[in-house]
Amino acid sequence: MMNRLTAVMLSGTALLTGVSGPAQAEENNLDEGKVVTLDEIVVTATRRESRIQDIPYNISAVSGADVEAAKMVDTAELLRSIPGVGIVDRGPRNSGTVNSIRIRGLNVDSSILGDSAVSAVSTVSTYINDTPIFANFLLKDLERVEVLRGPQGTLYGSGALGGTVRFITSKPVMGEFEGRASGALSHVKGSDSVGVSADLMLNVPLGDTLALRMVGSWADYPGITDYVNLYKLDEDGVPVAPDGVLADTAEYETKKDADTYDVWFTRASLYWEPSESVNVLLTYSHQEDDVGGRRQPSLGTDGWGNPYGEYENGSIQLEPSSRNVDLVAMEANIDLGFATLTSSTSYYDNMGDSISENTGFYAQAGWLGLYYNYPRPMAQANRTYSDDSFIQEVRLVSNTEGAVDYVVGLYYQDQERNITQESVLVGFKRWWDEWTGLSALVTGDTDFDYDYTDNFTEKAVYGELTWHVTDQVHATGGFRYFDNESEAKVFMALPLWAGLFPALDLEPIERSEDDILFKGNLSYDLSENSMIYLTVSEGYRRGGANGVPISGFFAEDPAFLSYASDSVVNYEAGIKGTLSNFRYNVSLYQVDWKDPQLNTSTPNWGFFVVTNGEKARTQGLEIELDGNLTEALHVNFGYAYANAELTEDFVSPTGTLLAPKGTMLPGVSEHMINLAVDYTYNLDNGMDLVLRADGYYQSKTRNIVNNVGNARVEQDLPGFSIWNASATLIMDRVDVTLWMKNIFNNRGVTGVFKEEFMGTLPSAGYFGNGSKELISLPRTIGLSVNYSF
Q1: Where are the beta strands (DSSP E) in 687-719?
Q2: Number of domains forming the structure of the chain
Q3: Are the C-beta atoms of residues 297 and 313 closer than 8 Å to each other?
Q4: CATH number of the domain that 79 lies in?
Q5: Domain region containing 753
Q6: Rounded to 5 degrees, what angle do the CA atoms 81, 197, 347 make?
Q7: What is the pTM of this model?
Q8: Is beta strand 566-579 parallel, antiparallel or unpaired with respect to 530-541?
Q9: For residue 98, which phi and psi values (nearest 5 degrees)?
């Protein structure tokens, strides 16, 4: 009972600060009046088990117990718990499409990206165990989550500019049959229904050397967003024309709580340990998402002048999305005595689709009146993305405890990504044929067809060597050599008008690059539990081919054919350790960013492209503090300051100024604060009660970086805070938690499509409104029950 109490009580350690929770907790009996001492946190960020205070750079860890105890509902909530880590919260819709994690301010992309996949890879890499994949799996049965700040290419096969987030799953346990069943009911403000979720974990021993661990999760969450301007559709999916096809009239309806979320998740892990020196872990993960619409209310009014309510969206059609992701990985370790040899082999397939209403964009761009002047306009974008990859990594990690430690690895990745968009003017051909009788001139309702495929291979050698100069002084040098090849192919057509615009099936555009990166680190142990350190590290992100036409009717400037890699130099100084009952970590950093990559579009025909700027810089301060004020009261605190801006004008390949020097980088808060407290009561009846409260604050952010002449999308987004609380009753085998998220129901806007960009236009027959705000989850109340056996 006391072990479970200690784990649950200490799990409040990292609710919303990123200061690590218990990876290994000491046994403490509160009834005997013992002070709860700091738990020892063991991480594997350096590819060997180390205490977190012994890692000579800024790392945070959140245990799986923390995630469960805080009843974290999604990755956005988890990452808001870590100082200095920002994220654009677009809800579950397209949550696996674009990685919008920001570490140390390294971002120039618009906060409204997310409906469609982009060409440039993220500045932050994410891992599931040893597999680099961005998939937004559910946070289930995790051992811990590690957040590594700064470039990580000398230790990880997939390098990154800003940092790495590692989701480490729980391994099967030998010789023990155990399980956990849990369920939850929840209600979100704005919804008329109740959400339901259920989880089951089983750990099954299969003899002395084999164990199986299985996790299954299901959730059915009702929506909160009412779509109030929906066209009524006929059996062909075309807006109903009550007075005939040529009349301007239409029929409308409302769909309440349209943004439903249904998800299935499963993971099975088989662990084999034939001897003390050999172990193999085989893991399969699968997730299916079905989302009914956006958690994004519209701004302003509809075409009749009616203002939108707090959770009302003005789209004239529903905007569902779905996703399927599969991951298979095998990790084998062989202890050679002098070193451990590890082989990691994995394959994943992540694919999704969505429907977006683009009529507001067409309206504000002037296309409805100029090109598509027909009644009941309905511009629908059907989008898909896929990302499948085979990855092989082999590394050797020294086991010796002498003067020198080393890590060396080989990395290979073969990846194919595909992005498609079909834009459809629903009902246009029916109207055209009725109006003109010239049916042969219009082929159908599809007015834009786009298909982009990128094949990428990377071969890399990486490693680090640490020299323990004395018992207190340690020096580390690292390197990464890589050789990349990419091939991009684009197909594009405007098939609406028969024979007017020939389709483009471009020849593949090939690109290759190789380089070597370096890292240096010097640390000094002030005591057994504290150190100071200095780090200089280089980071890199691959370039690629855009694949745009440079001749013919759709010609773009040849400067858009490809984009260069970008790179950073990260300078960091810090002090970390323990003092009395507190753990602390303070770091200062500066990151110089060269050739930052911006996902954007070409000026003539709007091809999706990536272009490079000149220079940017981020610099700041990160503070983490965690400890016990009394035997029962635990507190942690995090603060991050980031000054992230362009240090040179951002100019397009054709010489157009997109943003001037000094522009604040988008999606980056200058100030972020995390605070969490938990208090444990020992009840007379043998039960225990744990009370928790935690809060998060971020200052204002910018919507986009390319703000020159782009007032239709540029906007400063106000700062906000989110506060949560919970009460957990701990019994012998059952825990019951009553919890509340976003107590004060703050809107938490992290991106916006302005009315000037996608708003209503009744003069062109568009009475809906495509503007929207990306808001955080409104106030949510839930009851969770866990049963362990």
Answers
A1: 688-698, 701-702, 716-717
A2: 1
A3: yes
A4: 2.40.170.20
A5: 2-788
A6: 70
A7: 0.91
A8: antiparallel
A9: -130, 130
